[in-house]
Amino acid sequence: MSDLKHEIERRRTFAIISHPDAGKTTLTEKFLLYGGAIALAGSVKGKKTAKHAVSDWMEIEKQRGISVTSSVMQFNYEGFCINILDTPGHQDFSEDTYRTLMAADSAVMVIDASKGVENQTRKLFKVCLLRDIPIFTFINKMDREARDPFELMEEIENELGIQTYPVNWPIGCGREFKGVYDRNKKEIISFTANGGQREVEKVELNINDDRLEQLIGKDKRQILVDDIELLDGASYDFDMDAVRHGKLSPVFFGSALTNFGVEPFLEDFLKMTTSPLPRHSDQGEIDPFDPAFSAFVFKIQANMNKAHRDRIAFMRICSGKFEKGMEVTHIQGGGKKIKLSQPQQLMAQDREIIDQAYAGDIIGVFDPGIFSIGDTLCAPGKKFQFEGIPTFAPEHFARVSQKDTLKRKQFVKGTTQIAQEGAIQMFQEPNKGMEEVIVGVVGALQFDVLEYRLNNEYNVEIRMESLPFQYIRWIENKEIDLKSLNLSSDTKIVQDFKGNYLLLFTDIWNIKWAVERNPDLVLSEFGRE
Asked: Quick check: 305 pLDDT over 80?
């Protein structure tokens, strides 16, 4: 039991969120570098000879220089076992990010020092607030021209409604970037660019050291002294309880690309975060230190490796210990007892079969087609269910069919599997076959990924016809007679692949029409997986 407690206490599970191009994947790579998980850090964009980012494993990600799926990586650092969930920054894949945040205990928000708070940051931040989880801020790219740090603090506070506490403070930016001042240690860490492949050479000086003037210049020293005096007098006090509840964000400045400030950030982050948090279920809170195993599925991914051609269900372990070969109860599978086969931990597409894992860990298991996002698994004898994961309403719709009718089987398999992953939502018109389906996505770029994956993974070419629908509503009262509904001519009744009925609308007025003319109709803006 003491071993179980020790293993769970040393777990840290966090997601990294940001707007595209803020440097999130680069920061992830540097964490892995410090953990010894990789020997050479890759970058998302670069020359053909450059190593691609470990966390971007899908070919389309390497071609476009964006992350379109969430990657899971585990490494050890200074006695901690760290699970990083690297999420897509592009807004067209935000639904995958929402689900991934459900599996995290804290979030690291990466902000571009020259751009500040951007649209996608706002959206993802709101999800973090709903979860009441700690949010740590890394203001990146200080080695380039950046906005005034006081202005950035103010923007974070005003735009996101969270208080800030700068743990360190930058000295200059761009070519004049000289390093940061650590407010706790009261020391300056001098910046030396080194290409970012290893730890920065640090020169640590006290603010009153005579050598400081030689290092950063008289003017910069005076600006720093004035800034620190202002911070100490006017900034929010550090409050660990406020940090734990997402009310105060510790802020760090640095440069992920050149590796500056990454290790001090990781060390402070590990001190401030907690071991795995309790999870809500229909039978109250589930304590992570309860020895009985429990987990939920937050992601399903097919064909991560062309050599395997399989489906992996990603699970967040919420309590106890997982052991290879153990029997668990699949709650949504009718309470059936199953063995989780091929349990593995992942480094993007690289896999390692494991014998055990603990609360806080993310594991992948082979999915023969029985799991759905949001499913609960627990030790035999337990019958609780974790909170469901919201299904977000798609905003773009298209009718999709295969060009070659002889490839119907591959088309059905491909669209069904990609839909089960949550990458797209798939609908059928009642009493019609699967020769053509209606696909809904949150972001239009997901259509490109669907076409690419069907072609590359299932050898199917498709036709795609854009549809005018913009809104979707789930029909909550399943007993209602669909044929008796009074709907506008451009409203369509469809079914999702779980058999739920929904309505597609071209505009908001048609939703009002449906509600006003059908008083018994109950509509919902999102379903639960």
From this structure: no
